Amino acid sequence: MAQLYFYYSAMNAGKSTALLQSSYNYQERGMRSVVYTAEIDDRFGAGQVSSRIGLSSPASLFNTQTALYTEISSKHQRQPIHCVLIDECQFLTKEQVRELSDVVDELDIPVLCYGLRTDFRGELFSGSEYLLAWADKLVELKTICHCGRKATMVLRLDSEGRPRHEGEQVVIGGNERYVSVCRKHYKQALSSGSLEEVHGVPVRSI
Ligand SMILES: [Zn+2]
Q1: Can you give the pTM of this predicted structure?
Q2: Which of 55, 92, 182, 195 is 20 to 30 A from 27 via CA?
Q3: Which residue ranges does UniProt annotate as crossing the membrane (predicted)?
């Protein structure tokens, strides 16, 4: 039986690398995988998932209007699909998560979703909220804070390096940087107004 998977993490935990590795594993066995990524993420050019270690794959794009079940089902009729992989799945709507669960339940195709659990305010993204609720398997991809603890939170830093916890959930083309930290240092950075002060080291850009 196929299952719906949610691989979640803070930023920079190698989600895209994990996705591309899974996709490759299917292809290596002569199976067809289909990759989607959010239209909002154009860091690497349209219709592509790339990892920072140099792997990449062409990808279909989704936005909030994409009818994922209809699209995947018609691709599947033309040529059987053995696995669907979704990058940036935090941007899925509730309805799209339901459609992906239909891909699993009606078409019997495994769906592997990769994305962030929470935004820089510590709030769940819509896609992550419903994946946490409905996925068969929840898998945490781990990354660490400067202090060595597991990083579970994402800080948004403005152009002067000050942590922000207000504003739009997604900023495109801004000068913000994002840093993954543990919960303790997330709270300390917001209350002191500086991540450098908390860690005593400069923050690397991403
Ligand atoms: Zn920490």
Answers
A1: 0.89
A2: 92
A3: none
